[in-house]
Amino acid sequence: MIKTFLKKIFIFLIPLLVVWICIEIFYRFVPNNYTQKATEIQNNYDSKILVLGNSHAFYGINPDYFNAKTYNFSNISQSLYFDELLIEKHLKSFKNLKYIILTVDYFSLSQVDNSSEDIYRKYYYEQYMDINVPLISRFDPKSYSLTLTRNLEMNIDLMKSYSKEKTLVEGNSKGWAMKIGTNPQFNNYETAVDVVAKNEDGLSDFQVNLDRLNRIIKLCSKQNVKVLLVTMPVTTHYARLVNQNKLRKIYTDCKRIASEQKNCIYLNLFQNKNFQNDDFYDTDHLNEKGAEKCSKILNKVIIENSGFNSLQKIENVR
């Protein structure tokens, strides 16, 4: 009877094992944003400007519009936690690096480590980008099987997306991903309500991430690299819905850091008048036209202030 029972269990487990193996092979061999950036960053160690940050930078800062060679090392939902880990790993490999552009957006300073956005992404940084992620325990089985990082439905959806698009890679060889035109379905007030609600964590204690910013800036200083902190632009839909007290605190803290660190400046583009709502694909991500405009502004700031002496006083570009 026991043998019969074990046989039935084995037969039951076979299809599950096959599914698990297929998904695991998919994760291990199909290129994605993480694998691409892990490869391309090594081909761009001669860059003079490096961009880090979340999806606002990923879609909004185009290296083509910088006079100096630039690589965009940002990624979707990439928090300051992972920005720091990536800088620690790669900074010394850049021999000609002069500037790091780092986005600090409405949700950046209050974001807690190991948030819902990091639940599965942290394993991607570990497995695909060869990052030692302290959040992950060596006893965590997900560290050894990427199939386990997401539920079956999400895994299947990802495979369907690959089947439809024939790729999971969004960025080009310079790390920038393009959003084309304006999507009325997502660039409107109603969508902004949902997006801001998702981004609003209700937290006003920024100390953990402020300390992280200071560590990043000091590490860059040792390598004679300047840091340009930038709060990226958003639509008027998004801007009118955020907590204004929290927003002012973000501005104040970023300006204070820039005044205290000689190799750092802060540029606030959040409600910059150079941008109109049709510069955005959705409520808070720039399209290709907006990315061109934003990149040219950043390039102009770097060129005009190459000595970095007066940049600390800049708050907005008009």
**Gyration radius, in Å:** 21 Å
Strand fraction band? 5-15%
What separation lies between the terminal Cα atoms? 80 Å
Specify the biggest β-sheet: 5 strands, parallel
Categorize the overall geometry. Answer: globular
Number of domains: 1
**What name is given to the CATH topology?**
Rossmann fold
The helix/strand class is alpha/beta
CATH fourth-tier homologous superfamily: SGNH hydrolase
CATH architecture assignment name: 3-Layer(aba) Sandwich
Order of helices and strands: HHEHEHEHHHHEHHEH
Helix content: 40-55%
Spans with pLDDT under 50 lasting ≥5 residues? 308-318
Strand order of the largest sheet: 2-1-3-4-5
> Overall pLDDT, averaged?
92
Instruction: Count the E strands.
Output: 5
Output the CATH class name: Alpha Beta
Tell me the number of helical segments per DSSP (H or I, 4 or more residues long): 11
Keywords: Membrane, Transmembrane, Transmembrane helix
Organism: Flavobacterium qiangtangense
Protein name: D-alanyl-lipoteichoic acid biosynthesis protein DltD
Transmembrane segments: 9-30
What do these coordinates show?
With 318 residues, the protein is α/β, with parallel strands linked by helices. It has one domain: SGNH hydrolase (Rossmann fold, 3-Layer(aba) Sandwich), CATH 3.40.50.1110. The chain contains eleven helices and five strands; from the N terminus they run ααβαβαβααααβααβα. Keywords: Membrane, Transmembrane, Transmembrane helix. It comes from Flavobacterium qiangtangense.
